[in-house]
């Protein structure tokens, strides 16, 4: 890895409670995600996947260790600076989408840019370009309940990627989608990574985690395994590529 | 078997010679199952003996024999396409046998066996996914072969996840007893 990582977890741990009720959700996790890299996190329910993602996004603070985004330690930021860093540098895609129901697709995508201080006109132009890129220019003025699940998910991803966000955090982004639509979402995430974004993806679906450059496996709050795409297959890859 | 029926299917549009059949078989299946030319000729001989194909005319100037389907061959091929392949007719699963043995062999950590296998399966799944991204959507035959390998690798990973969870639960339940033995 030559480029500086966009995201770095340094021995980041999270415990809840104390004494007899102490629960260690995440043991010291060390993980770096470089620009252009897609890293998937797998593991059973309760293995610490969501905790890891929340720490990475500054939505929760580690009990010990450190989390850095673009070289800046999240722990040393004021609440205001952290909010700005989250808004400008990090895009979130959650399973439950969190699209604002009273805003259209374009308005949903433009929202974080407007919060960043862009004018409404600028933000809308950028949102329309983002929709064009994901092949959804036609749904710009539709409300979330007027779109299919796959369209809503792609709008959520476009919103996560608008502006100069270099880190995308995705929690089960293919959750309720059928196989083909889920694959479309993964192709989109992969393309954005290939264009330079860093992405940390939590998914329980092996087929979707396989789009990643690295797959890390969590068990009982610890990273126990990591794989890369270097296994020989029965396919003659040379003949295919 | 798949080679025999594969060759019959390739002969359905018209007569072909051995090397041509080998090349077309591999192109259609994305080279997932390469054939050696000896396999092709021995299969063609068996098919000829069984009356499912016949030599089409005399060998050409290079000595190549062109083969064509007979009506019996067409019937065999139609039967193959219309009959689903039974799950239990597939060969014994070495991995399932290995894990069953690992659980019951003293001194073997079955979880380690599972994790090593899952690492391999996940890495294959990543390689296959990468390969698939390079296949154009309109190349239906290849996309479907790669999908088949992807779904099989995914099923293996999911099954190994389940095995690991079972082993973890079993270990939690058995720990006091195990310590007593040690």
TrEMBL record, chain A:
GTP-binding listed as a keyword: no
Keyword Manganese among record annotations: no
Domain of life the protein comes from: Bacteria
Domain ABC transporter: 7-240
InterPro entries on file: AAA+_ATPase (IPR003593), ABC_transporter-like_ATP-bd (IPR003439), ABC_transporter-like_CS (IPR017871), ABC_transpr_LolD-like (IPR015854), MacB-like_ATP-bd (IPR017911)
Family annotation (SMART domains): AAA
GO molecular function terms attached to this record: ATP binding
Keywords: ATP-binding, Nucleotide-binding, Transport
Name listed for the protein in its UniProt record: ABC transporter ATP-binding protein
Gene source species: Nocardioides daeguensis
UniProtKB/TrEMBL annotation, chain B:
Transcription regulator PadR C-terminal domain sequence ranges: 92-168
One Pfam entry name: Vir_act_alpha_C
InterPro entries assigned to the protein according to its UniProt record, in alphabetical order: Tscrpt_reg_PadR_C, Tscrpt_reg_PadR_N
Highest taxon above the source species: Bacteria
Domain Transcription regulator PadR N-terminal as annotated: residue spans: 7-78
PANTHER family tied to this protein: NEGATIVE TRANSCRIPTION REGULATOR PADR (PTHR43252:SF6), TRANSCRIPTIONAL REGULATOR YQJI (PTHR43252)
Protein name (database record): Helix-turn-helix transcriptional regulator
Source species: Nocardioides daeguensis
